[in-house]
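Hey, resending since the last one bounced:
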Amino acid sequence: MKIVTRCLPRCPYPGLFFAGVLFLGSHLQAQTQTPAQTLASMDQCREQVINQLSFSDKMKMRTAMSAIQGNPEFIAANHAVTNAPTPEAQIEARKAFAKLKLDLVERQDPSLKPTIDKIRAAQAAVLR
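The structure tokens again:
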């Protein structure tokens, strides 16, 4: 009788195997997210990109965000998110609001374009 003591495939870098399993698990989870989880993932992507910025870029981002707070388009989009009738409508309103916010920040400070592009790419990966 042969006893099998090993279930995992032979991998020269076990860490890569487990990283692949975690990636696949998160990818499958992303496909079955609730609306609240989708919104949280969008926020998390933005925060991850911002946390990787230099201090001066973080301050530029904060200054640009403060400057756009009074923009009528910003206020209307924020109002649409707040008054969305269903969770699905809220997600659509948040997507539109996120896009508008990034567009306004980019217009406010064009030097932040590389950062804005990173945020857009991260959020697009979540929304697939």
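The first helix runs from residue 14 to 31.

Sorry for the duplicate.
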